[in-house]
Amino acid sequence: MAEAPRVYPIRLYGDPVLRRKARAVQPTDLLTVPGFDPQTVREVANTMLETMFEARGVGLAAPQVGLPVRMFVAVEYEDDEEEQEGQDEPLKSRVLREFVMLNPVLTVIDKKKDRSYQEGCLSIPGIYEEGVSRARAVQVRYTDLDGQERTLEADDYLARVFQHEVDHLDGVFFLDRLPPQVTEDHRKELAAMQRQAKQFLQDLALREKARQERQG
């Protein structure tokens, strides 16, 4: 049996899994992140959080690690400022709350739109844009890791994070919510990510083939 992963590889723009509509997931499911042995939903969630922290992110959806299921993790930090490279303070020390949401359903509770925040994405590293229109406040109904139904309200930055992650579960990138010219402006960077995503999938297929051959 393979050693449990400390972090997962993050899938990049161009990977087909990021465009698929994710399926429902239950807390009792066993999940298999491609390239790793099956894990419980709780184990996957914990590794997703570690992956998110290492990438210095605020949220991570299951499709971003190759799992087309409706689950995401997110955190609320002490402030909304972007992390600066070389900062000594560990990112985890700034966490106020951690969230693991299964099968989240968003309801807008403040229809006023906000475009003032800059958005980025761990699957589109290095590209940040303002102007993504998001509802200022939302309610999220979801299942927690213990199978309990929960409801949470969020506004401003946290509401944006939740909307961004739920978009991932429906195969939507934040760039899709901006004029097409914005994507075109980043065409070269995105093309490079697409090539990297294709190479990753080819390498993953070769490793899986070799594993199956070893098992006979």
TrEMBL record:
Residue stretches spanning the membrane: none
E.C. number: 3.5.1.88
Biological processes annotated in GO: translation
Active site: 165
Keywords: Hydrolase, Iron, Metal-binding, Protein biosynthesis
Annotated positions binding Fe cation: 121, 164, 168
Cofactor binding remark: Binds 1 Fe(2+) ion.
Alphabetized Pfam families for the sequence: Pep_deformylase
InterPro entries: Peptide_deformylase, Peptide_deformylase_sf
SUPFAM superfamilies xref list: Peptide deformylase (SSF56420)
Chemical reaction(s) catalysed: N-terminal N-formyl-L-methionyl-[peptide] + H2O = N-terminal L-methionyl-[peptide] + formate
Gene Ontology terms, MF aspect: metal ion binding; peptide deformylase activity
Cofactor(s) needed by this chain: Fe(2+)
Its biological purpose: Removes the formyl group from the N-terminal Met of newly synthesized proteins. Requires at least a dipeptide for an efficient rate of reaction. N-terminal L-methionine is a prerequisite for activity but the enzyme has broad specificity at other positions.
Matching HAMAP family: Pep_deformylase
Family per similarity comment: Belongs to the polypeptide deformylase family.
The name this protein goes by in its record: Peptide deformylase
Source species: Deinococcus aerius
Gene name of the record: def
